Structure formats: structure tokens, C-alpha cells
Amino acid sequence: MLKTLADHLFSFDVEWIPDPHSGLILHGVDLGESGNENHRDSFEALWHSARKNGDPDDHQPYLKTILCRVVSLAGILREKTNGGQASLKLVSLPVDPGDSEKCDEKTILRSFMKSVGRRKPQLVGYNSSQADIPIIIQRAIVNGLPGMGFSERPNKPWEGVDYFDARNSDYSVDLADSMGQFRDRPSLHQAATLSGIPGKIEVSGDSVAEMWLQGKLDQIVAYNEFDAFTTHLLWSRVAHFSGLLSTEQFHEEQQLVRQLLKVEIDHGKVHLEKFVSEWDRLLDLTDQM
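and the corresponding C-alpha cells:
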């Protein structure tokens, strides 16, 4: 299981949609000037090209990540204080879903890679080695962005921070692989809810493209924040199982998450009230109150 707990740790999740410009470049879809209906045509062209014989006409197959656009990235930043205690902070991009400049994919990727390149945290995700990390890398390259420290690699995994080798580096932690040993991998929803942690609440990844077409980026960001909290809470259980957190520290981590949720709700993120309610319901259901 997990072997290292760094002073900086970032439990994160990324949301993406089919990239309208991929439809324009690869399939000649006219995006026009109006927006969403043309974007819908682009989405359909990309899905159509990925469907296999026998798939329903409305099937939305999983697209290669390079064909997609990052629209949201959220995570829980865990840092050790000078006294040795941990502090938690919610990081959510775009900072303002109503500001088109802050919603630009380049802006989101640049902000993430710049911050990660500076702090060098352990990155913790779910299926991140197969999806989240590749899309960050591929879309940064497509957008012509420098790696800003995120792309730096040591000569050997154990000699430094390496985000490109989840199987050997302690700094790229994929909880799906940790729990499934690269074979029998549960979904995030399954692993979380059975552990008394909120999984998917009302929205799933399959809904994100339609939500974006309807101009509901704020709801995508909210959903992404749910997944960030879910991922961090699941990490704390895996870290406890691995001996990186004592039982006392594990319970303290749960309280830190509750405190962070309260702070964010008090500052206007009222959608997180659903997360708290679902958390309490599942803890009671799984007899872990």
C-alpha cells in the first residue's frame, strides 16, 4: 500500500468535456459564432468516430483524453504546519466560473502546474494514472504550455518527485491501483460509499458534457469539489490502513475535513451542505458514527 506521507499532499480530481475544437480540426465541424448547438455537433462528431459497431446511436463512448478539454480541477491541499499538525485547504479551478478568462483551459492548467511545480506535493487521485494525469499532460502539450516544474523528473523514482510513474513514485498516488492492485479496481463511488464516505451525489461524470452545453459550469465545479472531498477522505482511510496515520490521527483528519467543509459553507459554498448530510447518512448506515 502507501509508503510515504509528504509534508504537502494534494487530493484532486479533474473534469473534462469533448473539446469542441477537436471536432473542428479532426472532423470539420463548423463551430460558428453562436455556441452551444454547434458545440453539441462537435461533441457528436467525436463520439460518433469513437463508437463501435453495434453501439446505440446515442452512446457516448469514453474519448481519448487528448480529444477533451479540461473545464474544472479541484482538490484538497494538505500541508504540515510548523507545529507538525496538518491543515487543509480547498483549491478549486476555475476560481470564478462566471469569468470566461479564468475558465480558459490554459489558465486552469497553468495555475495547477505552476502551483504543483512550486510546492511539489504528493498528488493523490482515483484512476489518476490512467486519466487525470494524462489529460493534464496531453492538454498542456496541445496548448503549448511549459511544464513549470510539474514536468521535471529525477533520474530514478526514489531520488525525487516524479508525477509520471504512479507504479514506482511515492509522489503520484492512484488510490484505484492501491486498492485494486492493478486488477480488481472498485469505482470511486463503490469504494467511498461502502466506507461511509459520500460518492456520486446527484451528478456523475457522464452528465458533465450536457451540463457544460447548458451553461452549468458552476454545477460542474460543485460536483468536482464533491469528488475532491471524497478522494481525500478515501485517501485518509488508505493512509490509516497503510500505517501512515495512527487511529488518533485518522480521526483528527476527519475532523479537519468537517472543519474545512464548515468554513467553505460559511463562505457561501452552500452546495457542500449536501456532502455533509450524505456523509452523516452513510456513517450511520455503515454503523461508523
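(Above: one complete record from the training split.) The CA atoms of residues 110 and 145 lie 7 Å apart.
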